[in-house]
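Q: I'm teaching a short session on how sequence maps to structure, and I want students to see two examples side by side rather than one. Could you give me a first protein with its sequence written out and its structure tokens following it? Keep the formatting plain so it prints cleanly on a handout.
A: Of course. Example one:
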Amino acid sequence: MALTVLATLVALVAVGALVVVLADRSQEPVAQETEGAVDPSVPVLGGAPPTGLELDDRGTSVGLTWADPAKGKAPFIITMAKRGEQLRSVAHVDPGTVEFVERGLNADLDYCFAVVAVYSTKQVSSSVQACTKRGTARPQR
């Protein structure tokens, strides 16, 4: 029973974080609080966003590193998509984790990533989006 509740909670947070990321795909971090009447079941923007998102393009995989604004107290959701598509949740990482590797990618396509800090079921904050820049040159790894 507890696992079902936990899985449902994680799914709701992932969907909420995805909405947050899709709401502002600009290159500016989103750390402000949402004002006015808000549906209490939808997470709001709040808390410090992850910063310093760096990509290590390895062809069929991409390594991500970032700075933890919560100092090990908040888990993260990794979001990604092919360039030009909507970001979607691909992984959840534990509090204090500041690196992740996405594997199984097409070495000929560009991908975009963002990291979402989950402060609570009702408060999340997204990093700036970062994209691979493969163009015609492929990584040599």
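Q: Perfect. Now a second example for contrast.
A: Example two:
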Amino acid sequence: MARQPYYFANGLMIRNSICAAPIDRQWGLVNGAVSRWDCDFHRQHARYVGLDIVGSAYVSTRGCTARGSLSVAGDDMISGLQRLTTTIHQQGARAILQLVHAGQRSL
């Protein structure tokens, strides 16, 4: 059975209504940068979904949820995040990044 495209109210179209739920694989580098394992994982899974949600990127170094999580706490993370986004887009999926802050449970 062929999956039909899905259209959001704002007109955004994704190739099907399947969504990859956010998973924090904790494969990020020590500083929170995207690793090749992150890209490999999403390259494999983005082939099948319309929307790939990259899980658990912390917004502040003091709000890290777990070692190996991805960081969006500084501009030095942009190039890796762009690489990950390009990887997902090349597979035909749209990308979303889940933002987190661990609050009182931070590392």
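Q: What should students look for in example two?
A: Point them to this: The two ends are 46 Å apart (CA to CA). Also worth mentioning: Strands lie at 6-7, 13-14, 19-23, 51-58, 70-71, 94-100.
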